[in-house]
Amino acid sequence: MSSLPATSPAATDTATAHAGAGVWFVTGASRGFGLEIAREALARGHKVVATARRSGTIPGLLPRADGRLLALDVDVTDEAQVRRAVDAATERFGRIDVVVNNAGRGLLGAVEEASDRAARAAFDVNVFGALNVQRAVLPRLREQRSGHIVNISSVAGVVGLPGWGLYNATKFAMEGFSEAMAHELAPLGIKVSLIEPGYFRTDFLDASSLDTEANVIDDYAATAGATRAHAQDVNHAQPGDPVKGAKAIVDLTELADPPLRLILGSDAYGFTQAKLDTQVAELHTWRKISESTDHDAQAPESR
């Protein structure tokens, strides 16, 4: 896995990927991380295309931007609507430099408890919605030979957690296609970064953003059930500060060599370190069996 550069961001902040004001395209920008990212980008002089299913409230939530803000209605599951928004963005501002795939839905419940409807709805937004956005913007970034895709993943895209299994699956999917895409796009001058937050004090755990399965199986009370109870207890008391998180994300786009993955939050850092320690130990423990499954060496043919 990629990690932060050996030098600190403070030491490299003069080597910026976007020397001047750029154009940001942000999904899910009416609240939470999306809203704070839009606010921070505007504060630094960037132009922002802020999208949401209902974008009418966005201008009132952000400071006056002297024509640098374009709010658009976008349901990321509607590919045609996404393409129209990208067209409108480039018609207004001429280009797109940073794309933030932030729109998302949570799904809380044991894997067995999750209905097909709920699972598909989560994948439609978190996976297929992000892919819709990328397919719409990448032809323009490729033509420019520049740009930065910032996909908002989660620590749940790194660590499988009881109660979050189907949400884990959507974010693991995002992690997979983003890592592959980073290799595909690097020769074209386009960067890709995954943001992996832990619990941040947004409305992610509210019913407006999170589907909690009504189907409850008693056998999962100590696992998924405990996670469900914890989510209720920690809602609006999460340790992460979304304003600080948004600043870190915008900082990332100003680095000449940004990391593929950036963990946000001490809780996410702890979960990830524990996962990697366990995974490396398990890898070494079972190495002989792993390597024993290769074909036996073939003797060279006699001549």
| Distance between the amino and carboxyl termini | 46 Å
Residue share in helix: 40-55%
Q: Which residues sit in consecutive blocks of at least 5 with pLDDT less than 50?
A: 1-19
Return the structural class: alpha/beta
Order of neighbouring strands in the sheet with most strands: 3-2-1-4-6-7-9
Number of DSSP E strands:
9
Q: What sequence of helices (H) and strands (E) makes up the elements? A: HEHEHEHEEHEHEEHHEHH
Approximate shape = globular
Helical run tally: 10
Main sheet, how many strands, which sense, barrel? 7 strands, parallel
How are the SSEs ordered, and which strands pair?
Layout: H1 9-12, E1 23-26, H2 32-43, E2 47-52, H3 58-61, E3 69-73, H4 79-93, E4 98-101, E5 106-108, H5 116-144, E6 147-152, H6 165-185, E7 190-197, E8 210-212, H7 224-234, H8 242-253, E9 261-264, H9 266-285, H10 287-292
Parallel strand pairs: 1-2, 1-4, 2-3, 4-6, 5-8, 6-7, 7-9
Helix pairs in contact: 2-8, 4-5, 5-6
